[in-house]
Every structure is written in C-alpha cells, then in structure tokens.
Design a protein that fits this description.
Layout: H1 5-92
Length: 100
C-alpha cells in the first residue's frame, strides 16, 4: 500500500502543532514555576517581618505595663501629697497670717 501524501502532510502538520503546543506549555509552566518561587520568597520575607512585629508588640506591651505601674505609683504619691496639703491648709484656717 502506497503512502498517502495528503495524510502524511496532515500528520506532519499535526505533529508540528503538537510540538509547538508542548513548547508553549513548557515555557508557560516555567513562567508559573518562576512566579511561584518568587511568591514563596515573598511569603517567607513577610513571615519574618510578622515575627519581628510580634517581638516589637510584645516589647511595647511590656513597656506600656511598666509605664502604667509608674503612673499608678505617681497617682498614689499625688493623693498623699494632696492629703498633706489639705491637712496643712486645714491647720492654717483661722490663724492670723501675720502671726509668726
């Protein structure tokens, strides 16, 4: 049986299209793979930054707690000072300011 030149031509054309499709698919797969690698690197960097922020937030929380403790102590000292001022002013009520 002789080979059909039209069939051979069609087979060659289909083979070329298949090979071109494979090349395109391989090229696009390479691009997607490269993009995925870049995204993984960015996610890793973001993860590190979030870890750093966690540490900073923990430090800020500790600092705020320390400041709050100092403010509470200062408020106590102010109450004591105000009470002493009131006591001294109460002792002065009715006294002659010119009396020594």
């Amino acid at each position: 049986m002789a080979e059909d030149p039209i069939a051979q031509s069609e087979i060659s054309a289909l083979t070329r299209r298949f090979e071109q499709g494979q090349e395109t698919t391989a090229r696009e797969f390479g691009i997607v793979k490269s993009d995925l690698t870049a995204v993984r690197l960015q996610v890793g960097n973001l993860d590190q930054k979030v870890g750093g922020l966690d540490e900073k937030v923990d430090q800020l929380t500790a600092d705020v707690s320390a400041v709050s403790g100092r403010l509470d102590a200062l408020a106590g000292e102010m109450r004591t000072g105000n009470a002493q001022i009131l006591e001294l002013l109460s002792q002065l009520v009715g006294r002659n300011p010119d009396a020594g």
